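Re: How this chain folds, sequence and tokenised backbone to follow
How to read it: Take the token row as a discrete description of the fold.
Start of record: The labelled sequence and token lines come straight after this line.
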Amino acid sequence: MELDRIEIESAGSDAERLAAALLKQLPDLEGRVPIDEIALALDILQIVEAPLVGVEGCLQTDAHKSQGQIVLREGRSPRRTRYTIAHELGHFLNERHRPTDAVGFACTAQDMRSPAREGVRLRQEREANAFAIEVLTPRRLLARHLKLSADLEHVLKISDRFDVSRAAAARRYVALHEAMLAVIFSHEGRVLYIDKDEAFPRTAAWKGDAIGHLLPQPGREPLTGMDQVDAEDWIAGWFPGEVFAQTLRQADGHAMTLLLAEPGDRADG
């Protein structure tokens, strides 16, 4: 694979434009993005695994980022590995990103989900995440998954088509779908984290809150239908409309709940 790094970096520091410049050089792409081949074609010398502690991935490079090496925490799933490579490549290609320690960048699982850094490090981690999902799930290829009514079935199709985790696919789906959506990730009936589009109202539950009583009982099918629910159970304060929920039960007590809010003239009482 041959790619022009100079042309990509000339797009500037905006994550979406940077990703678009990279994908422009892959016009025949229709599904899974070969992110490891892309990284190796852009001056990443090698991608290796190591027994990292407290860190998901590292980009080892110099201050000028002339070349680099990506180190991944061993034992991670292939899809998480792909996301980590894309995240570290985002640091490498973004002209504004500066190494955060003596050897480059060290990124935690929190950095790749919902960064809790401060200042420059917070901005850099958010931008690396934005670049990663833009590259792994190209916008021009998502149209057919977004044009129909909101449904977690489409999230599963995005996950399979682009070889990304279901969580990453769900966050991307919520961010780009025209409907007012939120997705709640839970474990054993407690909220792990929430992603929602800007228009979705404030949710009634947040990280650590118990929502097990609101989730459907396990059945033979892991994915429920999109059913109407009480708005008061899911949205904080008064919401003049209807709310629908759909839950996907996953392994080891994990679940993903898609919320759809439809503003209307719901009467009080």
Summary: The radius of gyration is 20 Å. The longest helix spans residues 119-136. The longest strand covers residues 254-263.
